[in-house]
Amino acid sequence: MAIVLIRQDGKLDLWKRALLDQFPALPLYLYNEPHPKDEISMAIVWKHPQGSLGQYPNLQSVASFGAGVDFIIEDHSRPTGIPITRVVDDALADDMAEYVLTAVLGHLKNMDQYARDKQTTKWKPRPYSRIVDHTVGIMGLGTLGTHVGKALIKLGFRVIGWSRHPKTQPGIEVYHGAAQQKDFLNRTSILICLLPLTSETKGILNKSNLSHLQQGAYLINVARGGHLVEEELVPLLDSGQLSGACLDVFQQEPLPEKHPFWKHPLIKITPHVASVSDPKSVVPQLAENFRRLQNDEPLLNQIDLDLGY
Ligand code: NDP
Ligand code: OXD
């Protein structure tokens, strides 16, 4: 039994070193080096080449290097029914909360506008809003959404959430399911998307749904680019239905140079860095799952294969 690491973003060696530093005996191969395909029982992947999982006849589990698994679900070359695991990690959740707090507070105090004013040496005080003026709505109240919600509550924000199943979360009024989506959106002045990308959530940030938000609402998408219908965003900004958007994820990454989002003054762009898996912190759960696989024990952080998250 052995592990193959598959990612194409230049971080393969970093992860290999991190795994072997903490677990020197792990039988580990990189996908772009010669390796015995029939020995591979676990693939750890991040945006791997689609179809590449089909080369491993004895694959027993696929692990995501991150929290999301959409790119694994999409790869139908993997053996059906094998467990898929994802990262659940305190550092990842803290990083996400810090990113979202930065975006939210920057929006309240017009920080993007002042950055633009600086470029034209414009001295122009602008009206700002306060924490008490806002209701933050979090779409996707799972591991990360809940952690972000708690951080916002600590600062005094009114926080509401939306999930698939009914749930109680102290300090957060939770809406659930399609039937309550509109009521949730109606109350929201700052929307944070922290949903997994699935067939049900694809395109959920569309003109119709975003039109239910409070007039002048602010959008923060830190989930996946596929949630946003990109061509519908600019008209919503230009009409004033949305006052701005902070986007960390895009349908195509890197965002193409000619994409209209780059030049739009009300769109803040970051290059998929809201929270990045930290090898030191994440390696123990990956190694533990390999141990469990070898011992035929249930794996940590498995997704529900039917729901796709
Ligand atoms: P979880 O699986 O813990 O939470 C997902 C949440 O979404 C749950 O509350 C779930 O509801 C809800 N949900 C799923 N489908 C629906 C639906 N159809 N209708 C309503 N609610 C739904 O995921 P995480 O919090 O760990 O991560 C969320 C996403 O964040 C990841 O999938 C990834 O795409 C993204 N991410 C982005 C990063 C970045 O740097 N930009 C970094 C890390 C993650 P319920 O609780 O009822 O099941
Ligand atoms: C993740 C991500 O899913 O970084 O972990 O997007």
What's the alpha carbon Rg, rounded to whole Å? 21 Å
**Number of structural domains:** 2
Helix content: 25-40%
Structural class: alpha/beta
User: Which stretches of 5+ consecutive residues score pLDDT under 50?
Assistant: none
Q: Averaged pLDDT, please?
A: 98
Number of strands: 12
Strand order of the largest sheet: 8-7-6-9-10-11-12
Number of helices: 9
Say which CATH homologous superfamily of the largest domain is assigned: NAD(P)-binding Rossmann-like Domain
Instruction: Spell the H/E element sequence.
Output: EHEEEHEHHEHEEHEHEHEEH
Task: State the end-to-end distance.
Answer: 26 Å
Strand coverage percent: 15-25%
Please give the largest β-sheet: 7 strands, parallel
The geometry reads as globular
- The CATH architecture term of the largest domain is 3-Layer(aba) Sandwich
Instruction: Examine the coordinates and then state which fold CATH places here, giving the name of the CATH topology of the largest domain.
Output: Rossmann fold
